[in-house]
Write a structure and sequence with these properties.
Protein name: TspO and MBR like protein
Pfam families: TspO_MBR (PF03073)
Order of helices and strands: HHHHHHH
Keywords: Membrane, Transmembrane, Transmembrane helix
Transmembrane segments: 52-74, 86-103, 109-127, 139-161
Radius of gyration: 17 Å
Membrane topology: Multi-pass membrane protein
Number of domains: 1
Mean pLDDT: 85
CATH superfamily: TspO/MBR protein
Number of strands: 0
Structural class: mainly alpha
């Protein structure tokens, strides 16, 4: 089946970019306001990345999710035809922001683990839906799912090592 390519739907692109910008800004703002002292008191599981590596991999995750959404929008040519997978994308962005607020802002490690479980399911569903429009867009979600699984490992490790903390 030949692939139909359309000019980039600029409105879709702007909405996607605004969503990612907001997610990145809120996550960074919440993560940096949480004092290092509160995390330094917690027992950490093995393989905890440095703050710089953590921030870089989180940014890469956002970029991969965004690239997938842009590829889907590009293949469909308009927002309406891509509303299903882009709806999952925007929902995943919202849940990712929610995770940052719960983990870094509120400091509720147990609840943040539940939020990550929801996010993982959303990313898998998003990848499956992206596949209908673009195989590369779907494959870009594999490292995203792996990063979220790693975050869940870190969350579970922190939660388990710090009862009541």
């Amino acid at each position: 089946m030949p692939v139909r390519l359309h000019p980039l739907p600029w409105l879709s692109f702007l909405i996607i970019a605004a969503s990612v910008g907001l997610t990145g800004w809120v996550t960074a703002a919440v993560a940096t306001t949480r004092s290092r002292a509160s995390f330094s008191r917690l027992e950490m599981p093995p393989l905890v990345p440095s703050p710089g590596v953590f921030a870089s991999l989180s940014l890469l995750t956002l970029l991969l999710m965004t690239a997938g959404a842009v590829l889907v929008a590009y293949r469909t040519g308009n927002f309406r035809d891509a509303s299903g997978p882009l709806g999952l994308f925007f929902t995943a962005q919202g849940v990712l922001t929610g995770w940052a607020l719960v983990f870094f802002g509120v400091g509720d490690i147990a609840l943040s683990l539940g939020v990550l479980a929801v996010l993982f399911i959303l990313v898998i569903a998003m990848g499956r839906d992206f596949l209908r429009f673009s195989r590369p867009a779907a494959w870009l979600q594999v490292p995203v799912a792996l990063w979220i699984a790693f975050l869940a490992y870190l969350n579970a490790g922190i939660w388990g090592a710090n009862p009541g903390g």
